[in-house]
Design brief:
The protein contains 29 helices and 32 strands.
Length: 825
């Protein structure tokens, strides 16, 4: 086990507290019971230092705080004060984790996590970003500083209440600073970055099974996504494309981009370096980031133009799929002063509103899954690295940890994340991550979005967004569209036909010992994927391919989602003649698995003439009458899911086990559909898709009978598919659930779990971390989170919105009763 969990830590602390300071903990004056006193949302007056004028915070019945100030300093100061009041322990845990300081609080068991954070350079990047903000954008840095001062004002005020976890641990909070907001930004950026683990995993698969099978299992563009890209059309952007560079898209995408002409790395050498690749994958993995790294992190968004809207008003929907924690990653707030009038959700610990709306604009985010990092193969010799025929000394950055000095070595490409000796030669893997430039001014972009009053204001704000790239869904009172904003490093490639092209990322590890494969710039802002007011009346971005194959800067490093949610959204919207707010909500609650509908037809064809036992016939009957909806009461969903899981196990799983690749993501369900239709006699299916399905079905029914009994009517999806919203402490007593839950990995209302042959399935712990429906022109804004505003488990606002979220209901963000007023002065 790499590091002790917070749960283990707190259990130890609780045990110690009972034996050593139980009396103090139970003290009414200063013990744990003080948390009860702060658990409500009552009206209060706060006399604090640091404000220029009085501030009012009105708290409505949903728990959203409406902060009214007379100037920007007081507004962000008050936001920091309020954030600390509600979520201080969460903020500080996040900062401790991201900055690589976990072992200072939980001892040596936190060292591996600290080393991962330091190896990735999160603290280093945050300090560089902080200095660049101070120097280049002092007015925006001042707002981040104001937020920090508000946090500290709460910590040092007479109103500070020690969070329960701090009380048990016997610690005082540390003073907040802009660095901690920025290092958490770095953590979130890394968690949503594509281009590090993906090419490493692809290299492992490619080296193990060879090019043809790799292309079958992990195609560049997932099967069936040609008409479902984020940006409609063939990929041309602002009158620029591959064709207009004299390059044939069909030729370019027919090439093997893992060959040495594209990477500079001989494939035979690569196959010998699989231990190095495995070390690299392990070293950039962290147990506390495992939820983010799962296959099920994604997001949904779509926009409707005024021409397609039933009200004539552009509309937006967004639900980012992130780890579901108690308390939430989000804090609902409205910020209001002479310069700002914005409402939505603060990413806890960050000033401003990251997802939300003004009276004229609204925006949401999803991850585009294109490389903003690259991994390089280095030739090393002790403390030196080879570059363009010369040896250079690596930069050494030393950190003091509990087990001694920890040194991170840097080449010109970035930190060396793994080393390995082969045939008396030392190799390494380095990470070139765009965030290490220190100029990802995401908070400036956020603050400018918070102050936007037009579509063009939002576009201009996104010029500052750097890492991670994001699909920004944008609507104003008169326009709707998308802009995939952020920094995409470009690599100059010479194609086998002699033509040159700049591409985004790589499919495999690049040669780091030559300048040939170094980043040569960024995708220009005007040629980032973007479109406004498309003719068809809508766009959508649930992590599918961003653009099609004629895009001028090919996404060679595009590791996209399967497109199942994209197809479901596209089919639903395109079936309507116009779209309403109510239909936006209905689509967000959709639990039909698009791929399951297609694959189940193939299952039924394979099973129809099979001789069945009585139990198998009952299961088959439920499967044949199933409509593809992953509802809690569905039995067909359960039979389908375990048949699919067993099919994956005896096909892809067999291949993965043979080559020790079991930690790699499974191929998509769309891959199974494509192969079943086009290559049903493939060796992947041991020569027969039909026989493989029958074997999988028989095994699935047997497993379900052993676990759930022989009464098939009891095999409900909600019995095997459960949601747990986990506490940051990982203590079950502070978590929410488990609850029977709808959905699966491919439904719009997501409930993703791995396809494992266990009953019940692992808990769903990633999902819609918030839901937003917005129509600025009509002034309609609806939202909900799976939790509440308070971080105090004793507060009714710890989980007050959860039932609405579970029921796919919404709060009208414009029409809530004020239940408490805080006066700060």
């Amino acid at each position: 086990m790499r590091a002790v969990s917070f749960a283990a830590l707190i259990i130890i602390i609780i045990a110690i507290s009972y034996f050593s300071q139980g009396i103090q903990l139970l003290s009414p004056a200063n013990g744990a019971w003080i948390a009860i006193k702060s658990s409500g949302m009552s009206s209060q007056n706060f006399s604090i230092q640091g404000l220029e004028r009085n501030v009012t915070i009105s708290i409505d019945a949903t728990g959203m705080a409406h902060i009214y100030a007379y100037n920007d300093h007081d507004l962000f100061f008050a936001q920091g004060f309020y954030s600390a009041y509600q979520r201080l322990d969460q903020m500080e845990f996040e900062a401790i984790l991201a900055s690589g300081n976990l072992s200072r609080y939980i001892g040596k068991s936190g060292l591996d996590s600290d080393k991962t954070m330091l190896l990735l350079g999160l603290s280093r990047n945050a300090y560089l970003l902080q200095n660049n903000l101070k120097m280049n954008y002092p007015s925006y840095y001042a707002l981040i500083q104001d937020f920090s001062e508000g946090v500290n004002s709460y910590i040092h005020s007479n109103y500070y209440v020690t969070p329960l976890v701090f009380k048990l641990a016997g610690i005082r909070p540390f003073d907040w600073s802009p660095f901690y907001s920025l290092v958490w930004q770095e953590y979130m950026s890394w968690s949503l970055t594509t281009g590090a683990s993906e090419p490493l995993a692809y290299s492992l698969l490619y080296s193990s099974v060879g090019p043809p099978l790799t292309e079958q299992l992990w195609p560049y563009y997932p099967y069936y996504t040609e008409n479902a890209t984020v940006i409609p059309g063939d990929g041309e952007v602002n009158n620029f494309s591959l064709v207009k560079q004299g390059i044939s898209p069909s030729y370019l995408w027919s090439l093997d981009w893992a060959q040495s002409w594209a990477t500079g790395v001989n494939t035979s050498l690569l196959s010998k370096l699989t231990p190095l690749i495995r070390y690299a994958l392990s070293n950039i993995s962290d147990p506390y980031m495992s939820s983010f790294a799962s296959n099920f992190v994604g997001s949904n968004s779509w926009v409707i133009t005024s021409e397609f809207s039933s009200t004539g008003s552009p509309m937006l929907a967004n639900d980012p799929h992130l780890p579901l924690y108690a308390p939430s990653l989000w804090l609902p707030v409205q910020l209001f002063d002479p310069n700002f009038s914005v409402a939505g959700w603060e990413l806890v610990g960050e000033p401003g509103v990251l997802i939300g709306h003004t009276s004229h604009t609204a925006w949401g985010l999803t991850t585009p899954e294109g490389n903003s990092a690259n991994v390089y193969l280095e030739i090393l010799n002790g403390s030196n690295y080879l570059f363009d025929g010369k040896w250079y000394r690596m930069q050494e950055v030393n950190y003091s940890l509990a087990d001694g000095t920890y040194t991170v070595y840097y080449t010109n490409n970035g930190p060396v994340i793994a080393r390995y000796n082969l045939d008396n030669k030392e190799y390494g893997v380095s990470l070139n991550w765009i965030a290490s430039r220190g100029d990802s001014y995401d908070l400036i972009a956020e603050i400018k979005l918070d102050n936007s009053s037009s579509y063009q204001d939002m576009v201009n704000a996104l010029r500052y967004w750097g890492s991670p790239p994001q699909n920004f869904a944008l609507v104003s009172t008169d326009h709707a569209g998308y802009l995939t904003a952020g920094y995409y490093p470009l690599i100059n490639e010479t194609l086998p036909n002699g033509k040159s092209v700049q591409v985004i990322g790589s499919r495999s590890i690049l040669n780091g010992s030559t300048a040939k494969y170094e980043p040569s710039g960024l995708v220009p802002f005007n040629y980032l994927p973007q479109a406004t007011d498309p003719e068809r009346g809508y766009m959508f971005a649930p992590n599918q391919p961003t653009v099609w194959k004629n895009y001028p800067y090919p996404f060679i490093g595009g590791f996209w989602a399967s497109g199942g949610r994209a197809q479901a959204i596209n089919n639903y919207i395109s079936s309507k003649s116009s779209f309403s707010i109510q239909q936006m909500m209905q689509l967000q609650s959709n639990i039909t698995d698009y791929w399951a509908v297609q694959l189940n037809r193939l299952f039924l064809n394979s099973l129809s003439n099979m001789s069945k036992t009585e139990l198998q016939q009952q299961a088959y009957s439920y499967l044949s009458s199933w409509n593809g909806a992953a509802s809690i009461d569905s039995i067909g969903m359960t039979v389908y899911w375990y048949t699919l899981s067993e099919l994956d196990n005896i096909t892809y799983g067999k291949i993965y086990s043979q080559y020790n690749l079991t930690k790699l993501p499974m191929p998509f369900t769309s891959t199974t559909i494509y192969l079943a239709i086009n290559q049903p006699n493939s060796s992947i299916f041991a020569g027969s898709f039909e026989n493989s399905v029958r074997t999988a079905f028989i095994s699935a029914v047997s497993l379900l009978e052993r676990s759930l009994g022989s009464n098939v009517s009891d095999w409900k999806w909600g019995k095997v598919h459960l949601l747990e919203i986990q506490s940051y402490s990982a203590l079950a007593e502070l978590s929410l659930g488990p609850y029977p839950i709808w959905g699966d990995s491919h439904t719009v209302s997501v409930g993703g779990v791995p396809e494992e042959l266990v009953i019940p399935e692992p808990y769903v712990r990633v999902g819609s971390s918030l839901r937003l429906i917005a129509s600025p022109q009509t002034g309609q804004f609806y939202g909900v989170i799976p939790g509440g505003a308070s971080g105090n488990v004793l507060s009714s606002f710890y989980s007050n919105q959860l039932q609405f979220w579970l029921n796919h209901q919404y709060y009208d963000m414009n029409n809530q009763t004020i239940i408490a007023r805080w006066e700060l002065g």
